């Protein structure tokens, strides 16, 4: 673990301690956010799986209706009927907040097209057209849920990387730096104490010499 290059001073120790406290609080908040994201993600994922499963069960039945209609009628009649019944769909996208992530909400407005000749198309074609129109909002819902799932996955990955960077890189580095600064400060303090003791001993020795010289002078 690489330590930060800092000066071994008490001011620097206070600064590093404040950074460590901020990083620890940030790590706790990000962990809470990650837990919230995971809960929301699992809920949306279950909803998406159910919607996707329903779509995969129903959509082939709708397509089979068109295929059977094409087999039982002329391709020109089916093409003409599809052109005549073709409608338009307008999709509006809004956003709402899920655990701090702006996820989309799709609103689809369907305008059905004109009618087609019921005499030229089989009943299975009519049923397939009705089923497709009814199923279209479900397709939009599946797309909305799938987009939400991928956005939550991306946010979970970003949040997890930040949590890991704080937990395994920044916080240990700050702690090591604080430990190094304390060791250097203690070493400096011991060095100062030793120097003061030496100075005190030198002064006491000088005082004793001066006292001895004073006594010798008085005897003479």
- Work out the helix count: 3
Low-confidence sequence ranges: none
Structural class: mainly alpha
State the total count of DSSP E strands. 2
- Outline: rod-shaped
What's the order of the H and E elements?
HHEEH
How would you state the average pLDDT, rounded?
81
Which radius of gyration do the C-alpha atoms yield? 40 Å
What's the arrangement of strands in the largest beta sheet? 1-2
Give a description of the structure.
The chain has 220 residues and is mostly helical. The protein has a domain at 26-154: Helix Hairpins (Orthogonal Bundle), CATH 1.10.287.3240. It contains three helices and two strands, in the order ααββα. The two termini are 72 Å apart. The relative contact order is 0.15.
Sum this structure up briefly.
With 220 residues, this protein is mainly alpha-helical.
Keywords:
3 helices; mainly alpha; Helix Hairpins; single chain; 220 residues; two-stranded antiparallel ribbon
Task: Present the secondary structure layout.
Blueprint: H1 10-72, H2 75-85, E1 88-98, E2 101-111, H3 123-219
Antiparallel strand pairs: 1-2
